[in-house]
Amino acid sequence: MMETIAALATPPLSGAIGIIRLSGPRSFSLLKAVFAENRGLPPERWKPRVMMLGKVIVDGELLDAGMAVRMIAPYSYTGEDMAELHMHGSIPALRAVLEALYLAGAAPAKPGEFTSRAFLHGKMSLSQAEAVCDLVTAETRDAARNAAGQLDGKIGRVFSDMYDRLSGLIAQFYAAADYPEEYIETGPPAEVLQSVLETLETLLTTLGKGLLLREGLRCSILGKPNVGKSSLLNAFAGYERAIVSPRPGTTRDTLEEVVTIGGMKLRLTDGAGIRDTRDDIEEAGVKRARSAAESAELLFVTLDGSEDLTQEDRAVLDLARDRQSLVLINKSDLPQKLEREQLEAAFLHVIPVSALTGEGLDAVDSTLRRLFDGGATLYDGSVLTNERQAAAIRRTMDAVRNALTALREGVTQDAVLAELERALAAVGELTGRRVREEIIDEIFARFCIGK
Ligand SMILES: Nc1nc2c(ncn2[C@@H]2O[C@H](COP(=O)(O)OP(=O)(O)O)[C@@H](O)[C@H]2O)c(=O)[nH]1
Ligand SMILES: [Mg+2]
User: Which are the contacts of 35, defined by CB distance < 8 A and separation ≥ 6?
Assistant: First the structure.
């Protein structure tokens, strides 16, 4: 018998509403410990999936007015009996209700336990469960849309189709061995395997974009002191992330801020201005800024448009040569001195901006949009974002390739079958049909409580 779990499903912050979820066989009776429907109707008699108005009462003490709803197994998110209590988002009141529920016998839900129960009860596949986590933690519209597509089963259908094709093939091999006289061929094995390989290969090629979507692109703001690097970081972040000062050499540590520009998630770093210095702390900062720039996938080379180009600027521009970079000519609100022709000859994207007025930031936005595939990739759930899935796909492909080789070389059927079984096991890890408990635990541990 499964325990009945309870948790706060909304963030632990004060807000308009706070929702407590219950799942398990005792959901309805436990709800009675904290909620009284206005006409005195016990949850067991409520129409399922209809919100009931009532009072939140703990130990005879009125805590809130709220609404509650029940869902009857298997017609719920988890597939179990479930109840939700919608209260005002008052942290002390919500906490009191949770404590009362735990005292009455509910178990505190572990991270991801609602979704893992949904998976265990067959309400969703493993890739759909993983998509729940991706959707909740998505930071850009593309990431959210892709996760929603996967939640809808987009990638899961590919996996389960793979599973069916491989298990069909295995059955065919066994049938041929056991009942050669009734041997029915559903398709030439080599062709089935080849098409499985192609499908998986295509999926795997989307991983790079998927990881970018998840992890973001590392982008370094690079320039000599005082050109407005920290001001630009703040302008992109939308708040005063870094200290800005007219004094050169203010920023020493590297600061990172996750921002969305051109629909792209960027890990934007700002650091010390690049110059030769005798100050050993600043020197350490310059070193860090250089190494951040080296590992970055994109550079925002920043210049001060109100000044002539200096030797220090040229040294910075040298660092950006042959790198994916945008040259930002900052302080466009001031009278301009900097000559742009030479720069435009050497760099593809030279954009005047003003961190002060925000001028030109939209051009940075549209340039990035164009640079990074200009919306060519449809993030509709067909983009692989998950390393675990990628690893299982690689193992499947490896086994399928071995099976193909074995087939072609005409070795024993047993050898082919062993590889096919290995491929099936790897695909089973993708769908969740044959997945070890540790893997499941690991997946759901990434969730937050209440999901
Ligand atoms: N007029 C103007 N001043 C700016 C602009 N961006 C930065 N500044 C000023 O330039 C100075 C240096 O800015 P800061 O962001 O600290 O430069 P950093 O050393 O490159 O990080 C500060 O006084 C800023 O107020 C801009 O777009 N226009
Ligand atoms: Mg700075």
Answer: 43, 54, 55, 56, 57, 66, 68, 85
For the question of whether the overall pTM of this predicted structure is more than 0.85, the answer is no
Residue of minimum CA distance from atom 11 in ligand 1: 246
- C-alpha 24/C-alpha 5 separation (Å) is 6
- What pLDDT score was predicted for residue 274? 93
Determine which of 23-37, 169-183, 272-286, 400-414 has the lowest per-residue pLDDT on average.
169-183
The whole-number average pLDDT for the span 44-61 is: 97
The alpha carbon of 370 and the centre of ligand 1 are apart by a number of angstroms equal to 28
What's the confidence (pLDDT) of residue 181?
63
Is 221 touching ligand 1 by the criterion CB < 6 Å? no
CB of 246 within 6 A of ligand 1: the answer is yes
Q: How far apart are CA 241 and CA 155, in angstroms?
A: 38
Q: What architecture (CATH level 2) is domain 129-206+384-445? A: Up-down Bundle (1.20)
Topology of domain 5-109, CATH:
Gyrase A; domain 2 (3.30.1360)
Q: If you measure from the C-alpha of residue 290 to the centroid of ligand 2, how many angstroms do you get, rounded to a whole number?
A: 14
Tell me what pLDDT residue 375 has: 63
CATH code that applies to domain 213-375: 3.40.50.300
